[in-house]
Every structure is written in C-alpha cells, then in structure tokens.
Amino acid sequence: MFSPKLIASPDTLSNLAAVYGTPLYVYDSSMIRQRCQTLAAAFKGLPVKWLYAIKANDNPHVLKVIKDEGFGFDTVSFEEALLSLKIGQRPEKIFYTENNMTDEEMFAAVEAGVILNIGSYSRLEQFARLKNTRECSIRVNPQIGDGHHAKVDTGNRDSKFGIRLDLIPAAVEMAGEHGVKITGIHIHIGSGIQKPENLTQAMKVLLDIGRVLPDLKRINFGGGFPIPYKEGDAPFSITRFAEAASPLLKEELDRRGGDLVFHFEPGRWIVAPAGLLLTRVNTVKDQGRITFLGTDTGFNHLLRPAMYESYHAVVNVTRAGEEADKTYTIAGNICETGDILAEDRKLPETSNGELLALCDAGAYGMTMASNYNRRSVPSEVLIADDGTPKLIRERETAEAIVDRFLKESFFVK
Ligand SMILES: Cc1ncc(COP(=O)(O)O)c(C=O)c1O
Predict the structure, then answer these.
(1) Which of 193, 200, 289 is nearest to 247 (CA)?
(2) Which mutation among 188, 268, 364 tests ligand 1's pocket best, with the greatest number of atoms within 8 A of CB?
(3) pTM metric for this prediction
C-alpha cells in the first residue's frame, strides 16, 4: 500500500519536515475518512456497527475524524476509555475490552458507564458481585488464532486472552446467579490476520456459543484486518470478507428475529496506510558489508520492526522518482544493535540531510512510542480534508523532557 496519498506529494512532505522538523508522523485525514466509509458500506442491509480500536492510533484529532464518521471505540485500558470520553465519544459507544483489569479500573469503568467486555472468569465473578451492575459483554477464547506475528495471535488456546471455551456456560450461569446478564460476546483472534477464513471460522464458534445465551444484544468479532506492507502482499478485500461473513450474520439474525447488533473493531486497517514517519538521514556509514543510513528516529518511535520484525516500505522523499540502485540498511539512533528500521533496501544514492519516509506507520507507530534513551517522541501533523496541515502534537525539547523527568521523579535540583 505504501501510504500512497502521502507519498504522492514529496514536496508537501519536504515542506512539512522543513516547518515542523523531524522525526515527524504525518497522517492524512481524508484517507482515514474514506477507509471508514468503505467499512461502513461493506455489510449492506445488515446491522453491523463499526468500532475503531484506538490502541492503533489515539491522537485525539485522529479519534475525532473517526468518531465523526459514526464509529464507536474499542478501548483496552481505562485510560483509553477516559480519553474516548474526554474527546466526546458517548459512553454507550465505548467498549472497554479489559485485560487483567484492577478493581479500581473496574469501578471507574462502571461509574463512567462504558460497556465492559470481560476476559476472565475471575474478573466476571468480581464484576457480577458489584451491587450496581446488571449486564456486560464477555470475551471468548475461540481457540482459533491468527496474526502477522506470533506475538499478536490472541485467539489461540494458549493465549492469555478470553474466557476458555468450555468455561463459558458456567461463567454465564455464575453471572446469572448474581443477577448479571451477558448481553454481549466478543472475540479478537489477532492483529494482521493472514487467513481471513480463520476469522470466519472463529465467528462460527462465537455464533454457536451465542445460541445458548438468551439475553444477547450484540456480537463482536474483533479487529485484525491486515494491510499490505510489502510489494506483492495481497490487499485484504473487505468486500470479499463481507461476502463470506454475511450469510453467517443473516442466519443468526433470522434465528433471533432481528434483535441483534454485530460489531467489528479494526484499528490497523483504518489508519496504517494513512500515516508515515518522516526522518532525516544524518549519518551515512559504510561498515564493509553493510552501508547504514543513520536517522534521527529509532525503535522508540516505530517499534514494529524491532518487536515483530515488521516490514515498512522506505522512500527517499528528497530523491523521489530517482532510480533506486543502492542498497542500504536504515538504522535508528537508539543505543541498541536491534535498532534497525529496515534492512537491505534499494534506494537512490542517499546523503546526509535527505529525508526518508517510513511508510504505513499510521497504526501502532506513535501509540507504541516511548522516551527510551530519554529521547522525545515525534511531533505529529494531520493533513485536513482540504489539504491544510495541522500540528496535532509537538515534540518536547531536550530541556523540557529532562525537566519533566526530574519533576516526575521528585528530584530536587
Ligand atoms: C481487543 C482488540 N480489538 C481490536 C484490535 C485491533 O486490531 P487491528 O489493529 O489489527 O485491527 C486489537 C489489537 O490487537 C485488540 O487487542
């Protein structure tokens, strides 16, 4: 996919880098919007409601674009739920898919009125015992997993996520004894699904479970829709997926007389290709067998290559259109050997000061960024629908980041 709309305007990218500096995340609002609309149109005539998994990119301005397209949010921490509320999302459109939630987080979520999606028997028991709770959703482990890497396969039977399949009847009964109805069931089998048929298979498992739950109002099939990162990767066809999944949904709807809503909650598919990370080369280093392009970013800004061996296409923006006849490895500025952003890439001959784009970085880029090596996280710019760029987060100066750190550490100078 290679962030097509952004890469098509190298002059715009160069200007943004000149104005806002690098490293800089750049997002394209119109592409995010258009992808939301593609999803919204996919399941014609069926009660499918879309959620966006905000863990993929939770910049408030990006959230606002997606919220304005009518999407609810899936959140995976109380902080994400709170952020959703604070940017104006309605509590009944916020799902909190918990994972080792604390009592305090549970109380706060109940108080906030968001929909709790509970992923363990023991947490369900604690929730059901609360005086003021009447209903919730539960996350099921369907024993079918998928994903672009073993670390993001969440649906396999050995993963930490979801209530064990054979425990579901007991869990529902236990909740019922406390007067709590299970009104929703949920799976999320993994991120970057490689075989869409695994998702439809897991959907069948969930639908089967749902058949014995009388109070069900919503069935959530999770996210995980992949995008092509590499040339030759087949794009995920939402149309084809909807064609395969629709008969399952229709059948269930008919069985229940229409009183049901279906959810999906993708993150990556919506935002990944609509964002890229701009970085400037400051060191060209021939190490004999490998020529490194050293950049002003690293795995503290884009963790995916180091964490999952993920591939992000790299473009030399300064030399857009020139012949890519040199081979480089793109290295980050973090003090670790593993801080390699891209290996053995063909680029035009590249010099210090030139601008590179790490493509398809709109998802799990900035949200996974950290201050490792005590460095700042990048600035972010959102290009509005009319083409106007807007700074939506500003990188801290070295002085500011160190002062904040000292203050947070209660260190008195
Ligand atoms: C519970 C849950 N839902 C949805 C998602 C979104 O996944 P993706 O960005 O691959 O669509 C995730 C991410 O792994 C998740 O943990």
Answers:
(1) 200
(2) 188
(3) 0.97
